[in-house]
């Protein structure tokens, strides 16, 4: 999720979120306390107008930014030789991820851990996301506070897609991805890849956790 340009954007995000939160939280989250954490990212499957629902068991969490530890598509041969990326994470030829810059990313952790998360689009909106524990059937409910929808708290510049084989193992490869489309322009989605099923995920930024007070 990071290029040379995006490094500056992320540095701005890290500093800007603190000022943004300080300005907005007294109004939006009165009587609530939170602690800032190093930014985390949620891979979210929900329609943009949803404010609550089920299905969070199909969401994932990146506890660290997967961009800086990703592998460029043009360097895919590194992962062909060994399934271990230079940063130490394991690549799965039958379940791999791309970001908006053409980076092969480490997969997020599934399922989404139950809990409460302050999420933001990184610009002008935020909400308290609640992810419930799995029910008897393994389903996880979720909800956003203050009338916010998934669209409100989706970080538009970050786009992520998961690729799995349409047919047999090994038939879906990053080497077949069109590198010329990257970096993606605003509104563009990660490309289809021959032999692959593509699942697009919205990206939510986690900047804080509630503190009892």
How many distinct domains?
Answer: 1
For the record, give the distance between the C-alpha atoms at the N and C termini, rounded to a whole number.
35 Å
Query: Could you state the order of secondary-structure elements as H and E?
Result: HEEEEHEEEEEHEE
Gyration radius (Cα, Å) is: 18 Å
Shape: globular
Q: Tell me the total number of β-strands.
A: 11
Uncertain runs are 2-15
Structural class by SSE content: alpha+beta
Strand content: 25-35%
Average predicted confidence as pLDDT: 88
The main sheet comes to: 11 strands, antiparallel
Proportion of helical residues: 10-25%
Tally the helices.
3
Question: How would you describe this structure to a colleague?
Answer:
Strand 5 and strand 6 (103-105) form a beta hairpin. Residues 2-15 have low confidence and may be disordered. The chain has one domain. The two termini are 35 Å apart. The chain is an alpha+beta fold and 213 residues long. The longest helix has 25 residues, at 4-28. Strands 1, 2, 3, 4, 5, 6, 7, 8, 9, 10 and 11 form an 11-stranded antiparallel sheet that branches. It contains 3 helices and 11 strands; from the N terminus they run H-E-E-E-E-H-E-E-E-E-E-H-E-E.
């Amino acid at each position: 999720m990071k290029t040379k340009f995006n490094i500056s954007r992320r540095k701005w995000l890290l500093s800007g979120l603190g000022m943004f939160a300080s300005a907005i939280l007294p109004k939006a989250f009165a009587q609530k306390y939170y602690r800032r954490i190093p930014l985390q990212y949620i891979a979210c499957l929900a329609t943009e107008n949803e404010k609550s629902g089920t299905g969070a068991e199909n969401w994932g969490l990146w506890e660290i930014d997967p961009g800086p530890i990703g592998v460029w598509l043009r360097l895919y041969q590194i992962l062909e030789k060994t399934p271990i990326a230079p940063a130490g994470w394991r690549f799965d030829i039958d379940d791999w991820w791309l970001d908006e810059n053409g980076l092969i990313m480490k997969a997020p952790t599934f399922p989404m851990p139950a809990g409460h998360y302050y999420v933001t689009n990184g610009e002008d909106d935020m909400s308290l996301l609640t992810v419930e524990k799995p029910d008897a059937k393994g389903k996880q409910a979720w909800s956003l506070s203050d009338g916010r929808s998934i669209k409100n708290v989706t970080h538009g510049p970050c786009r992520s897609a998961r690729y799995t084989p349409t047919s047999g193992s090994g038939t879906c490869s990053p080497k077949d991805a069109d590198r010329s489309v990257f970096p993606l322009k605003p509104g563009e989605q990660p490309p289809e890849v021959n032999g692959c099923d593509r699942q697009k995920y919205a990206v939510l930024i986690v900047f804080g956790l509630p503190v009892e007070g």
